[in-house]
């Protein structure tokens, strides 16, 4: 307890240096916490689940996947042909529809672009990740939004950030009930008018949109009636089919059942878990994520250790006489080593804990998530584990950075110090 009291007194002796060291530690811990939060989220998304797996059916040899929509009627049953075949617990079909609300090609930008999932509206509540387990405070109002999309075939559900960007693009404030026309870029000639019927809950889908697949399919039929020929992508309008299964064994049987089915040969399909599909989708970010994990984060930790080492080294050099007097008074080298290490660890622990706590509160509560679009993930949240990450980073780097200065203080020679006293 006497050593602890002495450590606290020494920390408070030079408040400016302690404050600067703590602020530097907090800033670097903040960056590390953000990087690790994003990496932890992506790791979680690409980790296989043991129950309630989601199988993703897509075209085997082409990316992006383009399958005939006729596949959907049998794929939603898992390709089952006999009574003993496996059938999924739930399903969802995806068709990607993208375009701009600006007709003039020369004026198009990221703000006036809209990327939407054409799907069965009710599946938003049962199959979409994060939307299938909303708290009641969000689920109940979102159910009303989904019902409006079901009732209004040309309805549009959009994320808050995407709506804000579209509002900037039109020079006004778009709101629920407004209508927008989307001039498609992937389905040329299939320009559709939508009514904004609601917003996604804040979070993962802030940059996304969803439309009723029945409206999209009806537009394909209308195109053929008006032009006399099918749309060039009419037979390639199914991009993905998601199937929910209870466990890994059922998934394996379902995958084998679909892969061996004569229904899906032209083009051939593949079946993978949603985590594998996400991992493949973010493959293009592999180098960026590898650099963040193995270059950026270690570099920050090294920098943090050097910052603390520099601050402690200055303190040790200024206190050589003090350490010499302490040895004369009976303090052993181990005591001095513990005091210097304790000072650094206290600063690192408190600064790391404060930084991580503030990061968790600001990212999750103040800003509603970290906006960093990677693949189709628009927002990342700081997990509760980030608090102990910050404490561990602050403590560990402080300990690593203070070992050499503490060892130097331990080896102070009384005779040498007092020989320099004039």
Any overview of this molecule?
With 422 residues, this protein is an alpha+beta fold. It has 2 domains: 2-45 and 286-419, no CATH class; 62-267, no CATH class. The protein is built from 13 helices and 11 strands. The two termini are 35 Å apart. The mean pLDDT is 88.
Q: Shape, please?
A: elongated
Structural class: alpha+beta
Describe the largest sheet. Answer: 6 strands, mixed, barrel
Cα-atom radius of gyration = 30 Å
Output the helix-strand order: HHEHEEHEHEEEHEHEHHHHEEHH
Q: Determine the mean pLDDT.
A: 88
- How many helices? The count is 13
The domain count comes to 2
According to DSSP, the number of beta strands is 11
Strand arrangement in the largest pleated sheet: 2-3-7-4-6-5
Specify the helix fraction band: 40-55%
Show unreliable segments. none
Strand content range:
15-25%
| Straight-line N-to-C gap | 35 Å
Short characterization:
The chain has 422 residues and is α+β, with helices and mostly antiparallel strands.
Brief descriptors of the model:
422 residues; alpha+beta; 2 domains; six-stranded mixed barrel; two-stranded antiparallel ribbon; 11 strands; 51% helix; elongated
Topology, pairings included?
Elements: H1 2-13, H2 15-45, E1 51-59, H3 72-75, E2 90-100, E3 113-119, H4 136-151, E4 155-158, H5 160-170, E5 179-184, E6 192-199, E7 209-212, H6 213-227, E8 240-247, H7 248-259, E9 269-273, H8 274-281, H9 286-318, H10 320-328, H11 333-366, E10 370-374, E11 377-380, H12 386-410, H13 414-419
Parallel strand pairs: 3-7, 4-6
Antiparallel strand pairs: 1-8, 1-9, 2-3, 2-5, 2-8, 4-7, 5-6, 10-11
Helix pairs in contact: 1-11, 2-9, 2-11, 2-12, 9-12, 11-12
